[in-house]
Write a structure and sequence with these properties.
Layout lengths: L2 H26 L3 H13 L3 H15 L5 H14 L3 H14 L6 H14 L9 H16 L6 H28 L3 H14 L6 H17 L3 H21 L6 H28 L1
């Protein structure tokens, strides 16, 4: 470690200790006006952890005064800037309930939804917060169609929808990878129903057909014909819905294979009947 680096670390540590010591004195002060002034200073300096602790203490002191709304607003952002989105969401929500006529109410409605968006987890985890973000973003768009934030809310809504679609797709393809072809086909069909406007609809439909074809092939002989007929039916539906799809040839191949398989099944049945 160089001398310059050591001095920098030492200076940083001393400064940090000094700030903490000063804040401790502010926190212990009985002078609420002084605390309020320091809370405002900390907030202006973006020292949100200090500001938030003081704001929390000052709520009973400023309640019922002209300062109350502004403190409420800044306290919400103090949590938000610390990335404590859970508490920030709750305070933004309470702000809109307490001050519905405020000029800041619309902003806080949006920020509440945005806090849920920020809490949206990785794809493999539970997506409750993603769904809540979608619900609140949609409500915001409906209530404030002319808002400057409506475009951003719409974009975030689409991102959330894509995330949920991707999660559902991953779950469906897991069935396929594990060899549960009927379950995969059903899950993929449900996915198409849930996201009818998806630009991946023909991908999903192709996988439905492929899954049903594999399911038919591994079925007992007395069930195969009706299951190949299902493939043919799905292939016909695909051709009607996606006539320009890049998968059309593959779909027609599965249809032809299924028709031929049914012919073979019928030939075998005829042979068996003749032998009897």
């Amino acid at each position: 470690m160089t001398k310059a680096v050591y001095l920098y670390i030492l200076l940083f540590a001393v400064t940090l200790t000094s700030c903490a010591s000063k804040f401790s004195k502010v926190l212990k002060s009985k002078d609420n006006e002084y605390k309020y002034k320091m809370a405002e200073n900390y907030y202006a300096q973006k020292k949100y952890a200090y500001a938030q602790q003081l704001f929390d203490e000052l709520f009973p002191y400023v309640k019922g005064t002209s300062r109350y709304e502004d403190l409420f607003y800044k306290n919400a952002y103090s949590y938000y800037y610390q990335k404590d989105y859970l508490n920030a969401e709750n305070i933004f929500k309470t702000y809109t309930e307490n001050f519905p006529g405020s000029a800041r109410a619309e902003e806080c409605e949006y920020m509440r939804a945005y806090c849920f968006y920020k809490q949206s987890p990785k794809l493999e985890l539970d997506q409750t917060n993603t769904s809540k973000a979608m619900s609140l973003m949609q409500a915001f768009i409906n209530q404030h169609p002319q808002s400057a934030k409506t475009k951003e809310a719409t974009e975030l809504l689409e991102l959330c929808r894509s995330k949920l679609e991707e999660k559902e797709y991953v779950s469906a393809t897991l069935y396929y990878d594990l060899g549960y072809y009927r379950a995969a086909a059903i899950a993929l069909s449900t996915l198409m129903e849930d996201y009818p406007e998806s630009d991946k609809s023909d991908d999903y439909k192709m996988l439905v057909i492929r899954s049903y074809y594999k399911y038919a092939g591994m079925s007992f002989s007395d069930k195969q014909q009706e299951r190949y007929e299902k493939v043919i039916s799905e292939a016909g539906d695909f051709a009607e819905r996606f006539p320009q799809s890049k998968y059309l040839k593959e779909v027609n191949d599965y249809k032809t294979l299924s028709i031929n398989s049914i012919k073979n099944i019928k030939n075998e049945q005829a042979k068996t009947a003749t032998q009897r």
